[in-house]
């Protein structure tokens, strides 16, 4: 456990964010049991000021503090998206009641000036200041305190309070600049080695504020620029264009990097600190950066935290053999290992990659077809090359993720021909880039897995993938085990298992059952379950085409 309140809160947040607790199987009680030392640490920190007695209240407070570091306002929707949990789970965990209780106790505030259909909250500023400065709760930051955190807090507060209609940016930024110049902490001293304009310093400080807990998802450029220069759209858009083109001074000095380059006129650009700047920031704050999990694009999994998968014996043996191939490839310095997982949607092709990664001790770097494409001419090719460059960089730095390309048939569906069509030419160039990368540009030991539906990928591409594994709808025994895992000793499981449904459809049916429980506060009977099954079968069947669910004759 960390001895710093911010790191402890980040640990609780990361445990839920990176965990594979999902949907109806998620249990906050198990999180509290596993992270009891961290829960007690947070409770002790706020002992005198907030008097939190219930462990669930402490966990919720830790989570909303983490979310508040990246968003001034939040509600159930934001919490659901950030934690990757469905709102049903949050309501079952009484999240909405706890938030309302926090509101009545002054822990949270609500903006009454805005008319919203859904409640939006913001955290009490004293609580956030206490956490970020690691002081006693409710103790205000002294005005003469001059360290990295105090400067970051000022930058954050300026964004919240700055009114461009009445305030001048340079005047508002002057107090921050004075502390910035005065402070001799490692991170700010490093930044002072560069020649920076005030607005550039503010951008860096705001990015650093988001990164101080190690979980930032990028800084939205247009949102801040529009706050500072609402009447000067030209300046705002010029700054955005410079970031998109990679010619902004902060990008050229390698102080920030793009996490999203924007795919259209209205799309925004997100940036984050570069690894070397993060290293200085984390070193300044005493947060280690050697932990491989801090690479945002990588996800790590533990077998005991993953939902069990139920496959026929033959398929399970193929998957076990593939795991052994990955382990042997590590031992003998084998070239890149390429595999295709074929099957209908919902049969477990993507989910099993998490299990494989957990067994072989690797992370997962996941991309899908949209990550390769961009509406601007020539940008799709750049994005595709950057993806493969990123994979090579990860392996060069000692991180050896499984490279998962979802729906790879979206690009390798059929051989494109160079012609006068811009779309056709783009597909032709993308295919050449990907095929060249598969042939020679992947690092040694790289494991690449592509997922595809049956018959969607051109046969001429299959020879590029030595390992090809087919996923079918599970047999009766597999379906029975899955239903039993989700419903326990329900006496009607045998009847439900007669329907040849994919695992994803079964999960969806159980989710609808839990939704019924939440809405109608009653146990769902077998007739209702069969009704849900029949609806899924009808929705998933298309005449004589491939079916995702049908009743066995």
Description of the molecule:
It is a single chain. With 553 residues, the chain is of the alpha/beta class. The chain folds into four domains: 129 residues, Arc Repressor Mutant, subunit A (Orthogonal Bundle), CATH 1.10.10.10; 144 residues, no CATH class; 174 residues, Rossmann fold (3-Layer(aba) Sandwich); 76 residues, no CATH class. 52% of the residues lie in helices and 9% in strands. The protein contains 25 helices and 13 strands. The chain has a six-stranded mixed beta sheet, with helices on one face. It has a three-stranded antiparallel beta sheet with strand order 3-5-4. Strands 1-2 form a two-stranded antiparallel ribbon. β8, α19 and β9 form a beta-alpha-beta unit. The longest helix is centred in the middle third of the chain and has 20 residues. The chain is globular. The N and C termini lie far apart (56 Å). The C terminus is likely disordered.
Q: Strand count, sense and closure of the main sheet?
A: 6 strands, mixed
Number of strands: 13
DSSP helical segment count? 25
Name the overall outline.
Answer: globular
Question: What do the pLDDT scores average to?
Answer: 76
CATH class of the largest domain: Alpha Beta
Whole-number total of structural domains: 4
The chain-level structural class is alpha/beta
What share of the residues lie within helices? 40-55%
Contiguous runs where pLDDT drops below 50 for at least 5 residues? 20-24, 112-117, 135-144, 261-266, 288-294, 542-553
Query: What is the CA–CA distance across the termini?
Result: 56 Å
Q: Just name the CATH architecture of the largest domain.
A: 3-Layer(aba) Sandwich
Rounded to an integer, what's the Rg over CA atoms?
Answer: 26 Å
CATH superfamily membership of the largest domain: P-loop containing nucleotide triphosphate hydrolases
Please name the CATH topology of the largest domain.
Answer: Rossmann fold
Percent of residues in beta strands? Answer: 5-15%
Strands across the major sheet, in which order?
6-8-9-10-7-11
């Amino acid at each position: 456990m960390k001895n710093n309140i911010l790191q402890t809160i980040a640990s609780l947040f990361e445990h839920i964010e990176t965990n594979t607790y999902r949907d109806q199987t998620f249990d906050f009680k198990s999180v509290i049991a596993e992270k009891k030392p961290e829960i007690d640490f947070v409770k002790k920190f706020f002992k005198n000021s907030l008097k939190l007695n219930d462990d669930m209240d402490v966990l919720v407070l830790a989570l909303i503090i983490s979310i508040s570091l990246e968003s001034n306002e939040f509600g159930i929707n934001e919490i659901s998206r950030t934690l990757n949990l469905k709102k049903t789970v949050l309501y079952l965990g009484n999240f909405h009641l706890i938030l309302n209780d926090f509101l009545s106790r002054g822990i949270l505030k609500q903006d009454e000036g805005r008319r919203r259909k859904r409640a939006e909250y913001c955290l009490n500023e004293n609580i956030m200041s206490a956490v970020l400065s690691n002081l006693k709760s409710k103790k205000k930051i002294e005005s003469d305190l001059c360290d990295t955190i105090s400067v970051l807090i000022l930058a954050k507060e300026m964004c919240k309070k700055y009114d461009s209609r009445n305030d001048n940016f340079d005047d508002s930024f002057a107090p921050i600049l004075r502390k910035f110049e005065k402070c001799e902490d490692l991170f700010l001293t490093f930044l002072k080695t560069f020649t920076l304009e005030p607005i550039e310093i503010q951008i860096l400080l705001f990015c650093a504020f988001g990164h101080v807990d190690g979980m930032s998802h990028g800084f939205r450029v247009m949102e801040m620029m529009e706050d500072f220069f609402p009447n000067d759209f030209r300046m705002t858009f010029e700054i955005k264009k410079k970031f998109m083109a990679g010619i902004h001074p902060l990008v050229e000095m390698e102080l920030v990097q793009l996490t999203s380059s924007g795919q259209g006129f209205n799309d925004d650009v997100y940036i984050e600190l570069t690894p070397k700047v993060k290293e200085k920031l984390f070193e300044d704050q005493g947060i280690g950066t050697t932990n491989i999990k801090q690479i945002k694009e990588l996800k790590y999994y533990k077998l005991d935290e993953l939902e069990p998968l139920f496959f026929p014996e033959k398929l399970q043996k193929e998957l076990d053999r593939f795991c052994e191939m990955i382990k042997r490839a590590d031992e003998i310095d084998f070239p890149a290992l390429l595999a295709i997982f074929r099957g209908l949607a919902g049969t477990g092709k993507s989910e099993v990659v998490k299990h494989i990664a957990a067994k072989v001790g690797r992370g997962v770097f996941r991309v899908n077809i949209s990550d390769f494409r961009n509406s601007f001419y020539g940008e799709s090719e750049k994005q595709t090359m950057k993806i493969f460059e990123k994979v090579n960089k990860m392996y060069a730095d000692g991180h050896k993720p499984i490279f998962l390309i979802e729906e790879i048939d979206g690009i390798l569906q059929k051989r494109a021909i160079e012609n006068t069509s811009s779309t056709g030419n783009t597909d032709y160039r993308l295919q050449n880039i990907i095929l060249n990368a598969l042939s020679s540009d992947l690092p040694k030991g790289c494991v690449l897995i592509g997922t595809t539906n049956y018959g969607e990928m051109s046969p001429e591409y299959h020879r590029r993938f030595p390992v090809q594994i087919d996923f079918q709808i599970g047999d009766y025994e597999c379906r029975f085990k899955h239903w039993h895992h989700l419903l326990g000793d329900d006496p009607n499981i045998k009847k439900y298992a007669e329907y040849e449904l994919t695992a994803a459809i079964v999960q969806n049916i159980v989710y609808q059952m839990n939704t019924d429980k939440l809405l109608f506060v009653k146990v769902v009977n077998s007739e209702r379950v069969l009704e849900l099954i029949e609806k899924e079968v009808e929705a998933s069947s298309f005449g004589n085409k491939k079916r995702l669910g049908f009743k066995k004759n």
